[in-house]
Amino acid sequence: MKHVRIYSPEKLTENQIITFDAPTSHYLTNVMRLQNGSEIAIFNGGIEHAATIEIQKKQTVAHIGKITNTNDPITNATLAFAPIKQSNMEWMLEKSTELGVKYLQPVITEFTDQPKMRLDRFEKILADAAEQSERLSVPEILPTKTLTQFLSENKLPLYYGDERSAHNQHDNCPCLGSSPHDNHFDINSHTSTGPNTNELFQNSKSLTNQPFVVLIGPAGGFSESEFKMLEQSNAIPMNLGKTILRAETAAIAALSILSIK
Predict the structure, then answer these.
(1) CA 91/CA 103 separation, integer angstroms
(2) What does the chain look like in DSSP terms, one character per residue?
(3) How far apart are CA 68 and CA 184, in angstroms?
(4) Which of 3, 50, 115, 189 has the fewest C-beta atoms lying within 10 Å of its C-beta?
(5) C-alpha to C-alpha distance for 109 and 82, rounded to whole angstroms
(6) Terminal alpha carbon distance of the chain
(7) Are 242 and 188 in contact (CB under 8 A)?
(8) Measuring CA to CA, which residue among 11, 12, 6, 8 is closest to residue 34?
(9) CA 55: distance to chain centroid?
(10) For 121, how many CA atoms within 13 A lie in the half-sphere containing its CB?
(11) Under the phi-then-psi rule, with left for phi > 0, alpha for psi from -120 to 50, and beta for the rest, what region is 67?
(12) What is the separation of C-alpha 141 from the centre of its chain, rounded to a whole number of angstroms?
């Protein structure tokens, strides 16, 4: 039988008894067909416990046992993103959770056209993704900020998806050799003017041990004034290839590159 893992929003301690909500009870008893005394894993805050379920008349509870795992396979990455279409955003947050993102930072930019977000829906998606990917925690959704506020407060290394570099279509494209940053990331480069693919992956090995931020703009991209703000903030542009990527695709591509150990 599949190893059943459940995220608990409650802090867990040995010998504690917790009561599951109706959807989780339904999943355990009707979907997974668990019986009284069935063993599951339950986790929160980077710690996983063994647990035994008890199916009562109107609810299902778990008797929390010993700690079984404290090795949470997450990175120190923060995904900062401009809100996009709900379904696309849900996919992006699900996959970024699977990739080990620690924090999720909504950022409002000039071209953001989907400022409203269903945080209750996001929490369920993040929990499901954490259960599936063997995480011991779920990403924390931080309060929404404007791009100006975010850049002024951010103290971590910041990498952003730069769609201007695709096909070298723009005269002001900060591509390798013309970037104001010596360490502009170009996954297609094999020249002496900047890091090639192997060098990029080698660099990413050290990044995973330190906090860093990946910033992805909205469907309409960043404005020229926002690009200037990013450059003034010493943010590092990432060339994600020769095609223009959707925002959710760019987020996963950037995180995948920077999260390789």
Answers:
(1) 16
(2) ----EEE-SS---TT-EEE--HHHHHIIIIIS---TT-EEEEEETTEEEEEEEEE-SS-EEEEEEEEEE------SEEEEE----HHHHHHHHHHHHHTT--EEEEEE-TT-------HHHHHHHHHHHHHHTT-SS-PEEPPPEEHHHHHHH--S-EEEE-GGGGGG-STT---TTT-SSTT-EETT--STTS--HHHHHHHHHHHTTS-EEEEE--TT---HHHHHHHHHTTPEEEE--SSPPPHHHHHHHHHHHHT--
(3) 42
(4) 3
(5) 6
(6) 31
(7) yes
(8) 6
(9) 34
(10) 9
(11) beta
(12) 10
How long, in residues, is the chain?
261
Q: What single letter denotes the amino acid at residue 83? A: P
**38 vs 176: CA distance, rounded Å:** 57
pTM score, whole prediction: 0.84
**What does residue 234 show for φ and ψ, rounded to 5 degrees?**
60, 30
